[in-house]
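Reviewers asked in the last cycle whether our approach scales beyond single polypeptides. To address this, we selected a multi-component target totalling 754 residues and predicted its structure end to end. The input consisted of the following lines:
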Amino acid sequence: MPEPFSFRIAASDGAARCGVISTPHGAVATPAFMPVGTQATVKGLAPESVRASGTDIVLANTYHLMLRPGAERIAMLGGLHRFMNWPHAILTDSGGFQVMSLAKLRKVEKDGVMFRSHLDGAAVSLSPERAIEIQALLGSDIVMQLDECLKLPAPPGEIERAMRLSLAWAERSKRAFEGVPRERALFGIMQGGDDVALRLASARALVDIGFAGYAIGGLAVGEPQEVMLRMVEAVTSVLPADRPRYLMGVGTPADLVEAVARGIDMFDCVLPTRNGRHGLAFTRFGSLNLKNARHADDPRPIDAESSCAAARDYSRAYLHHLLKAGETLGAIVLTTVNLAYYQRLMADMRAAIAAGNFDGFRAASTEIWTRADAIAP
Amino acid sequence: MPEPFSFRIAASDGAARCGVISTPHGAVATPAFMPVGTQATVKGLAPESVRASGTDIVLANTYHLMLRPGAERIAMLGGLHRFMNWPHAILTDSGGFQVMSLAKLRKVEKDGVMFRSHLDGAAVSLSPERAIEIQALLGSDIVMQLDECLKLPAPPGEIERAMRLSLAWAERSKRAFEGVPRERALFGIMQGGDDVALRLASARALVDIGFAGYAIGGLAVGEPQEVMLRMVEAVTSVLPADRPRYLMGVGTPADLVEAVARGIDMFDCVLPTRNGRHGLAFTRFGSLNLKNARHADDPRPIDAESSCAAARDYSRAYLHHLLKAGETLGAIVLTTVNLAYYQRLMADMRAAIAAGNFDGFRAASTEIWTRADAIAP
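The resulting structure, written as structure tokens, was:
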């Protein structure tokens, strides 16, 4: 029997907490960062490299996988874990975000959303029930409800309409999830844009329905960090303490620290992987753009003291050369370095919370980043 | 003191021989296959993955590295081994082949070749002396003379002119090499196209000059395998037995076996890496085009019995998906699989020669490949 989903808080420090999510595919130490494996692969890395970075759980995209290679095909091949050779935990989003950002000619109705595939223009429909069915076929450990995610800024009426629709879909998702193996978990998604009252209404209604975890959607879509954090503070005040809280699509290292300070347990973001492919390295001392000509003759590694071999083994000059020459190894090394940096940051936050020193850690990190931004080119 | 270059034959079986080349950066078991690291990286693989495939030595391209990032820059950064984080042996070609195939507006004269860079059109000149100087700056363990390499078919007069010019450059290269640290090695390159008499004349003249090893250039440029093997047979009859013989730019698995049968010790070729990037897997049972739709639902790995984890860990369906989706991991896995296959083939040949059973190994391999070609789609 696979281990059923559960969440245990091991220690708290202010609003920050650290703990463990148990899933049918292993434990996830929280606060947790989930690398994004859009098309059933974390771009450029073999699964053993993703694991070596300290990753317990990856996110995969329902929208992409339903279109290619197809959820039924993955199920027939033994499920997503076997398909992508990742035996650890997987969370799948519901497809809602990509339907809004990638699909063509979409039409949102009460029953669900109709759209045309960005790959071949084929007409596809996605309902709350179908989103659950697809994720059940994939075999995800954590399943997300279908929601409607708006770009900000948006008119208040639009924000409220999308929030209410997402709540109706949340109820239908919960009913549809009754047919899914019990050891897996369903998370509800809060909406409400940048409106505290709507966010609170969304959170309270979701808690009334009852979910294994609660996600904050519709943020990190262009609003200032301060707005995002205000929304996080508002909803965490009404969410049950014993359920994981997931801030979707966030963020920069500073975003992660500030959100953990406000009680967030889970994150996903393309930043470490996408920025790595584009030549940007995250380091303890701020970020480095290795495409910059000033690195061409620099024999120093990215970080000689890093516990990540990729950050120690290659000179900045070599990485600059690889990026200029368009060689894949440049993207691979920087993706590895960035993922290791993000997971190290999460581990450091967990240790600081357990030691009751999260405020000290947060202040020290903020100070280093502020200084780095001042000296970085 | 680094180990000086040397070559020791451990066993012979017919014309085939196995042995060890010692270099300042470690031993190379022969017959040896050298993966191509054009721009100071074997495309898509970290150096530890290249090493894990069983690789003792890689080839890097003088032409590419002299243009970007520049030989003087690499020397200032501690040499090519440190630059590309590859502490094992490196052979560099002389740039002659790429000047002919990539550069624009080239002009071959007695003194050397003038050309325009394919990167930015800058005017560059390369002489036999400069080719040695560049390779000395890179710190290559095995240095190749500058030669003129023609595409076949070519007019007989042209073939003889290029062969004589390459011989004159061989003499100048040997003199220029006197200033290079003694533990490194210089190889001469035979030319002569598909003309046995010219090939013999080229080989004899090179032996008179005297080199640490002898390379056969200007083959695998479009001629039939039978022609290539006839040239190999001709020159090996006059080459000294105690020096390594290197067949440049070759080849398919069958080419390697047939050339080893004729006394060749070293090879380089882009096939395993380039074909991997294009979706083709070499296996013990022939090659597989993973882009082919027939693999879309195939749960089998490339080779369940392979000693290479990448050949066992991923289904053909998953690799097909990665290739269709343009995901880098597909190219990485197939490059890994192909390099492991090539190095396993070399190891099997070495073992068969040591056991005095090379003919049996060759016949069995040929039979399997013939059958695979008949059943492969």
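The interface with chain B takes residues 39-41, 43-46, 68-69, 73, 76-78, 82-85, 296-297, 299, 310, 313-315, 317-318, 320-322, 324-325, 327-329, 331-333 of chain A (CB under 8 Å). We regard this as preliminary and will revisit it once experimental data from Aim 1 are available.
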